[in-house]
User: What shape does this take?
Amino acid sequence: MQMRVTFQSRAIPLQSAIQQRSRDLLRSQAEVSSGKRILKPSDDVIGVRHALLNRARIAQVDQFMGNIELGRADLNMADSITGQVADRILRAKELAVQLSDATYGPDSRAAAAIEVDALIDEVVALGNTTFRGRHAFGGENTLELPFTRTGDTVSYAGTDNGVFRRISNDTPLVETTFSGTGLFFEDRDATTNFTTNGVFNALAQLKQAMEGDDAEGIANTLSSLDTEFDRFVAARTDFGARGERLNQVQERLEEERFQILDLQSTTEDVDLAEAISDLQLRQTALQATLGVTANILPVSLMDLLF
Amino acid sequence: MSILNSLGLFSSLNLGQRAVTSQTAGLQITGRNIANVNTPGYTRQRAVTGVTDTRADAVSGESFPSVQLIRDEVTERLLLQERGRHGSLERHAGLLSQVETAFNEPSDSGLNASMTAFFNSAEDLANTPESAGARRLFIERGGALAIAFQSLTGTLETVRNENVEEARILIDDSNLKLEQIARLNQEIARTPDPGNKGELQTRQNQLLNDLAKMLSIRVSQEDNGVRTVTVNGLGVVNGSSSAVVSMALDADQMMSMRITLDDDTIALRPTGGSLNGLMEAQNDTIPSISNDVHAVARAIVDGVNELHPGFFADLTDPGQRTRAGAFIDVQIVDADAIEPSSTGLSGGNDVALAISSLRDLAQTDLGDTSVLGYYRELVSGVGARVSEMSQRRDTSDLVAQQLEMRREAISGVSLDEEAANMIMFQRSFQAAASYISVVDNLLETLISRF
Assistant: This one.
């Protein structure tokens, strides 16, 4: 059967075409005005998954970069403190070398002993340095004063472990607040917390030898002073290596961030040139449809007869 | 001889009068068609002129000219069915896109961002565990996360509540339409005039079309024009009596609904119509999405509380939310109560670090994905549902449009045809009138010469 064409059968497809074109135009408008291709999950089911992942990952990477900045500041601080401690040990060594010479008398040694005593105080103060509100060498006990001097002994109130930070998903945590253990001393008394085998002991030994006017004893302290000096120099190397690792991770994260931003842009952003030309095409299409509607619909035999 | 007898001039006059009446009636039908050119669901009528019996003494056809409704029952039935399917898909797609909007993704303020910000604040807490500021930030971010969850589930709950209201309105409307259809049946059975019958049926068609969008219906017609309406095999309009559709809410907090006939005695299971779309969304889709959101919240609350007991208040079951409180909330208000470390040392941060790692930790309760991964799948899944449902709706829209066109091709009014018919009836009327005038002249000749 031949299809009859009625007024309605001409109007129905035109109406639905106008609606469709208007919807297309609205969509184009939204894309151009927001600059986004994915405005809601159903716009791109796979893309939205990437969009969410990218956003979460960028937030995480930003957090890691912040962590790294903080970690670097902590490392710089620790490096500077250990450097200053090493300087004090060096000074003590100078004094030891100088005053182990038999030509010096008890008065000079007594005067030097006072300087060494001051050096001990300085090293204690350095060990007690606070950085951003926390003690840099107290381990996890960041708020309690780590080192307390009592006579020629120094006690340690911190913990043996430092505080760790996460700098990326796939690298180990890095220590950024440090323990005094292993750096300022090797061992400590379990009950009194007095430190042994450390910089304080070596300095105290030197001080006592000078007070006792014991040239040989002064000379004997040189080896332990060397050991302490080496320990701090080694620590500085270690801090440097850690800083280098932070740099590497940071570089990698920056690269990753850049890649993700790029990916995010290709996933979510519209190609503006394409979107605008789409918008214009759709506008033209709507105008054409409206034109057809206005021209075709009224035509009827009625118009010709009456 | 007998033929000559029956061909009296008076009977010729009678014949002319019948011709005039017949053309006037035809013109009237044309008028009715033109008047209804834009009436949706109108079935065009055609004047059927039978063989005019010229014998004056013969009983002429009672319904001369008779009226015929031009319609194709198969097309009408398919169209009703497709309207039901379209109504269902459209409602379902509409509700889903409401749900999709509630997720507000991808954005910098959705749950994805809130979760990331919360885990980052745990990282900040790990950086400076002794800082009151970091602790307070951690509590605040936890609170913001809880609010993001609450606002999402709150919207889902609002959608569920609105669904119930909307179902009530749709059911009231359906009942009204069923009643009107039954009343029209009564009138159709009573009226003898076929033109009138057609008018009544057109009105009934419109009601049936509207009803088909709400409930999937099947319509069958008896010889006298009376329609029987069934929904999934159950009669809802029988002659002049109509059934009453009602709704029963299940006791659960998800507000599942059932549609029943005559006060909850018989379950009515419409296979299409907006009521069906509403029910599918209410009973299956939205609860399943709610449960998924809840699973993410549970994984976070349980994970965090295991590391930091009592940080979040215990989670209530999905849909168990009472007016008294939110289903997820931070319990700790005091920054001092935050314990970033299991050792209690000021610089310890193992707990904070572990909380931060939760974001990437695969969890068995979430099908071996992380909370963020599960949430991503959830959002993507909602998007997939919306786009699938919209696609099906668009297809159904197209099918309905095709059927509508077919119906139009058969039953629609063409003004061109009507214009042609009008001229035909006009000319026929003029011819019949001339005939009467000729017979009249003959009669006058006879009478005046008498």
User: Anything to note?
Assistant: Residues 132-190 of chain B form the longest helix (59 residues). The radius of gyration of chain B is 36 Å. Strands of chain B lie at 45-48, 66-69, 218-221, 227-231, 234-238, 241-242, 245-249, 257-261, 266-267. The mean pLDDT of chain B is 87.
